[in-house]
């Protein structure tokens, strides 16, 4: 296992980057703690795979350095970093059996035949391919081949880190859940440093100890699933995490009060007088329908999703989503909405404003 340190790291695919938009990966300083499971989460093109490939040695960064346990490996090839990487699409040896594919990394390191047999059979069971271990990989379906790739990545116990680049893309939904569960169990047993790239928030939040959210080549927050949900440090995190995502309303703020189009909202904390473009952010789970005081709301439609209903509304012309219980009465007119005190976040130019007296840092990255 390894602690991975990124120092002043940035990358551009252009030979002479001259402006911020030229950088595919904007500068990052961070320590990936030894033995933790991380998810790199963000939409396509945000820089996730670029960062992963720099860590693995497939890409040399334009600037900065990478250290494994304090040793500079910035220029070191992948083989010298002692990592295992699983890619989005399967990479297997078609002429080998499933067993031979899984055993290949262990044979290359000269392990005892008994150890190889035990380890291969254990991983074969983990990926649900025990009955296919002696079958040739040629002719297997894409999802079966990807399970082989996944198993080959997990078969070694001595790696510095396990890197996964959207490894479950071609796996059916039920098997995805099983493999995520097994990856977490593998992490609990052996304590590998794991980095898992995905654009799927469910995968990220169920797999990782800490999630690294990326947007437009930049790390905008690193935190636990609870921190990302309750205190998004950037409006993109609020929008991207949750279903539906966080609601945002333009407002002004003075002290413990936000004003939205002349309507005053108690915030429960003192925010002073933040400058810039000010927005109020609140999760749909923390918005309540009311018939009394509150912001006037117009109900557009109600979507029943089983355990709860999603109310699509408009407040002062802006869209607002509300999570309502199954038995909650929803009128079509005369509704107002109120926000749970202490569950509102304030943003200045897209970054979260920390209320006065709070001990939590402004940005988690």
UniProtKB/TrEMBL annotation:
GO terms for molecular function: ABC-type ferric iron transporter activity; ATP binding; ATP hydrolysis activity. Gene3D superfamilies: 2.40.50.100, Nucleic acid-binding proteins, P-loop containing nucleotide triphosphate hydrolases. Transmembrane segments: none annotated. It holds the Pfam family ABC_tran. It is found in: Cell inner membrane. Keywords: ATP-binding, Cell membrane, Membrane, Nucleotide-binding, Transport. Residues 4-241 form the ABC transporter domain. Signal peptide: none annotated. One of its GO terms (cellular component) is ATP-binding cassette (ABC) transporter complex, substrate-binding subunit-containing. SMART domains: AAA. It is a peripheral membrane protein. PROSITE patterns: ABC_TRANSPORTER_2. It comes from the Bacteria. PANTHER family: ABC TRANSPORTER ATP-BINDING PROTEIN, MALTODEXTRIN IMPORT ATP-BINDING PROTEIN MSMX. Belongs to the ABC transporter superfamily. This is ABC sugar (Glycerol) transporter, ATPase subunit.
